[in-house]
Amino acid sequence: MRKLIKTIFLALFVAVLFTSNAYCQKGNFKGIIKYSISWEGSVGPNAPTTWEMKVYDEQTSFTDMFAGFPMLTNAKNNTTYMLVDFSQVPVEGVTGKWFVKSKMTEEDFSKITYTILPDTKLLAGKTVKKVHCVVKKDDGTEDEEDIWMCDEIGPTKDVHYYPGLKGMPFEFYLEQDEIKATFTATEIIPGGKVEEVDMLVPSGYEEVSEDEFMEIFSTLMEYIQELTGGGGDI
Residue 178 belongs to what domain range? Predict the structure, then answer.
């Protein structure tokens, strides 16, 4: 009997260990990654200092900090969805809920080259790797930067900030004009009440192309300029 109990216990331990690893391995993780944000440049006193990304297997959900819109990504089909809620904007042609679907191509992926460097460090309890990124710009020039990547959890590749990266950015940078934001992973919450429905476009949103959205956005900007007298910053 003691031998039988020992055998059952060992089998259960192996099963739990296996399912735990499968749950956390890349492409099969469900949970929330929390980040801190540090700013450089002229930012307001209310600039956010935290950010989070929800992960459900190969899909993610987050708010793009610079665009200001919720984003959904799917690494399986290389797609991103930008969600825009203008339902409270009282402007003809603007009022509504919209989503813009974009699909990454092999050409998009080929514009960035990644080289994994030997440097490592600990972020959010994970050993992350330093990655040198070289971005080929349309004018023939190149931009270079180093980021830190976790290739243990998250989607098998990134399709938004670093298209084609075989891991999840755990420390990276975003720059716009004279402002720079540094995102650093601080906490991993497995489970985190993340469900598949969080990765779906909500009901009531209408799909528009990028060009159609730019027309909607231009109409909104014209309306705002009229309100402000056409001068000054918007």
Answer: 26-220
